[in-house]
């Protein structure tokens, strides 16, 4: 799933390549991705693209007083082209859910695509994203805006595990499965640590790790073409998706905890005092 750094890089790409151009046409091949009915997507036609940004992991393309808001979910992506095919999309055919033509039918623009059978890509066309898009209205503070004091206030009295808290968008916006693993590894904290019981030193390290991991990832990602962003993300990961490989810090073997539809990785030596974590879900299955 694209997280804060990749979405920021996509927004930057749109600011560099789409702003100032006019929406010539929007093709929708999968109506299920549209989560709003009014205004219709045709209201974007003829409008100048005036900006691009993000809300957490939501991408926001601004065209005057309208916003095309996108959540790419787990398997969605934005694919830019300097010269799109002018042929209208066929409904329900292929991975492309929505296409935005800029300046002309065969001009530049982008496709919103989604791989696999489990669909989660979502698009809203609204005037006020912070009020009209429920998942944006629920967002906590942006991860890159948090300072040490704010982080302590957010975690005070909470009882969930650190991994859960870092990926809860209503608590902190922008961090997903991959970067939460990287942040906890840099901070030398267990994914199972209780958020409300973190020491002063642990909070210091966590705050620094959030800023360092995300800032570094944004720096690596911004300026890359959309097609190269996924590879850039993978190349910068030290523990996530590296099960069985040596930790780049201490050399211990990276371990994994598996869930029904995802997994996370950690280093026992760096994060849990050398002890592998119990995978309680797997333990129950083995009883």
UniProtKB/TrEMBL annotation:
The cross-references to InterPro entries, in alphabetical order and at most eight, read: FPG_cat, FPG_N, H2TH_FPG, Ribosomal_uS13-like_H2TH, Znf_DNA_glyclase/AP_lyase, Znf_FPG/IleRS
The EC number on file is 3.2.2.23, 4.2.99.18
Molecular functions (GO terms) = 8-oxo-7,8-dihydroguanine DNA N-glycosylase activity; class I DNA-(apurinic or apyrimidinic site) endonuclease activity; damaged DNA binding; zinc ion binding
Glycoprotein as a keyword? no
- Cofactor(s) it depends on: Zn(2+)
Q: What keywords are annotated for this sequence in UniProt?
A: DNA damage, DNA repair, DNA-binding, Glycosidase, Hydrolase, Lyase, Metal-binding, Multifunctional enzyme, Zinc, Zinc-finger
User: Looking at the keywords, is Hydrolase present?
Assistant: yes
Q: Which residues belong to any copy of the FPG-type domain?
A: 238-272
What the record says about family reads: Belongs to the FPG family.
Q: What is this protein called?
A: Formamidopyrimidine-DNA glycosylase
Q: Which organism is it from?
A: Amycolatopsis umgeniensis
Q: What is the lineage of its organism?
A: Bacteria, Bacillati, Actinomycetota, Actinomycetes, Pseudonocardiales
């Amino acid at each position: 799933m694209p997280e804060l750094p990749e979405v920021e890089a996509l927004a930057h790409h749109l600011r560099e390549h789409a702003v100032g151009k006019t929406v010539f046409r929007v093709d929708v091949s999968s109506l299920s991705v549209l989560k709003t009915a009014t205004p219709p997507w045709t209201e974007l036609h003829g409008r100048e693209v005036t900006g691009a940004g993000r809300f957490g992991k939501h991408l926001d393309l601004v065209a005057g007083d309208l916003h095309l808001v996108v959540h790419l979910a787990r398997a969605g992506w934005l694919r830019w082209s300097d010269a799109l095919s002018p042929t209208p999309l066929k409904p329900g055919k292929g991975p492309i859910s929505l296409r935005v033509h800029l300046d002309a039918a065969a001009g530049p623009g982008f496709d919103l695509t989604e791989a696999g059978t489990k669909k989660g890509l979502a698009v809203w066309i609204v005037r006020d994203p912070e009020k009209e898009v429920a998942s944006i209205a629920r967002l906590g503070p942006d991860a890159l805006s948090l300072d040490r004091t704010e982080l302590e206030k957010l975690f005070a009295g909470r009882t969930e595990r650190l991994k859960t808290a870092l990926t809860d968008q209503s608590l902190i916006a922008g961090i997903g499965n991959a970067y939460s693993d990287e942040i906890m590894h840099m901070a030398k904290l267990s994914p199972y640590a209780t958020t409300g019981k973190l020491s002063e030193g642990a909070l210091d390290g966590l705050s620094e790790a959030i800023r360092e991991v995300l800032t570094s990832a944004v720096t690596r990602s911004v300026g890359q073409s959309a097609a190269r962003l996924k590879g850039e993300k993978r190349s910068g990961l030290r523990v996530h998706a590296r099960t069985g490989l040596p930790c780049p810090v201490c050399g211990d073997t990276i371990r994994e905890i598996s869930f029904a539809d995802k997994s996370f990785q950690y280093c026992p030596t760096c994060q849990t005092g050398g002890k592998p974590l119990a995978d309680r879900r797997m333990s129950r299955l083995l009883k």
